[in-house]
Amino acid sequence: MRRGLPTKKPIHGVKHIIAVASGKGGVGKSTLAINLALAIASFRHRVGILDADVFGPSIPRLLNLKAEPQTNEKGDLIPLANFGVKAMSMGFLVGEDLPIVMKALQQLLHQVQWGELDLLVIDMPPGTGDTQLTISQQIVLDGVVIVSTPQDIALVDARKGANMFTKVNVPILGIVQNMSVFVCPNCQHKVHIFGQNGVLKTSKEMGLDYLGDIPLDADICELSDFGTPVVVTKPDSFNAQCYKEVAKKIMNKINLKN
Ligand SMILES: Nc1ncnc2c1ncn2[C@@H]1O[C@H](COP(=O)(O)OP(=O)(O)OP(=O)(O)O)[C@@H](O)[C@H]1O
Q1: pLDDT tens across 74-101, in order?
Q2: Tag placement on the chain: N or C end, fewer CB within 10 Å?
Q3: Which of 20, 31, 63 to mutate to test the pocket of ligand 1 (most atoms within 8 A of CB)?
Q4: What is residue 88's three-state secondary structure?
């Protein structure tokens, strides 16, 4: 028998799969992943989100989902859903015991009854570890979206992340800058807390597309904490529009209509 990398498999019934990744933790990856999923669903696509953030699953909280998923007669997991988006999360399944986590990851990748989806968004764990490699090697991804804040320490890790995906032949759809600008709610003065154009500069240096900028705004954080993300709760707000602009660029790249 030939030994080597495992063969990549599509996910049954799912037309497109993108991953959202970051080099560093806490830069807003899950918030971007869920708002992108909801934005693309708002363009009348059937969307699911797979939370593969093994040690810090956020999607149950972001979608206000708590129940344990049921299984079908084949033993496949049936996703939960909220705001029209189907969701499956490591957070529904396990604690933090590594062997169990890796087994659960296989179940999440290959044994979920998604039904027909136009797009599955995978929320990756931060960094460049085993989970990212496993997903890159086992799943046919249309591409990965990298998110970073504009300060150097995050950008160094974003580069590492991008390099890892390139090495394993996963196309990079582009980079999103998060939390670069804070607009004072009283005087509208703009403050670039972590620097202004760090992600744009890095994307140019790396020859990657710049997909847009999401401001640092308390509303984004609070609505996420309530399990009511800004794209569904305040769809006409500036913040929601920023996520929708990024979503449109991604949809164009993977040939999804908007
Ligand atoms: N643009 C933003 N404005 C304000 N707060 C934000 C923004 N983006 C994310 N946050 C907040 O920052 C925190 C971290 O965000 P999030 O959980 O999405 O990051 P992450 O990169 O997925 O983290 P982890 O490494 O835990 O997976 C959360 O409290 C979230 O609400």
Answers
A1: 999 999 999 999 999 988 886 556 667 7
A2: N
A3: 31
A4: strand
